[in-house]
Amino acid sequence: MISNSWNKTEGESISQKVMGKVKPDEPLKNRIDLLRKNYNHKLQNYQELMKNYKQNMIKFLKNVLMHREITNRFMHKHTQEN
C-alpha cells in the first residue's frame, strides 16, 4: 500500500517523500526528445503511406477512365452499325 511506503523512511520531510514518488527516473528533456523522434518517425511513415495511397488511387482512376472510354467507343461503334 502507498501509506505503508510513506512510513518506512523516517527523517524525510513530506516534500522529499512526494518528490521521491513523483520525480521521473530519467530527465524530462530526454523523454520529450525521445517522444518527439518517435512522433516524427510515425508522421513520416504516415506521410509515405498517404503518398503511396494517392499514387495508387490516381493509377486506379486512370484505369477506370481508360476502360470507360474503351467501353463507350465499343458501344458507340456497335450502335452505329445497327
Helix/strand structural class: mainly alpha
Per DSSP, the total helix count is: 3
Q: What is the CA-CA span between the terminal residues?
A: 90 Å
Average pLDDT score = 84
The helicity comes to over 70%
Task: Please tally the β strands and state the result.
Answer: 0
**Largest sheet, strands/sense/barrel:** none
Low-confidence stretches: none
Order of SSEs = HHH
| Range of strand content | under 5%
General form: rod-shaped
| Radius of gyration, whole Å | 33 Å
Number of domains: 1
Topology of helices and strands:
Elements: H1 2-8, H2 14-22, H3 28-81
Structure, explained:
With 82 residues, the protein is mainly α. It has one domain. It is built from three helices and no strands. The chain has helices spanning 2-8, 14-22, 28-81. The longest helix has 54 residues, at 28-81. The chain is rod-shaped, with a radius of gyration of 33 Å. The termini are far apart. The model has no long low-confidence stretch (mean pLDDT 84).
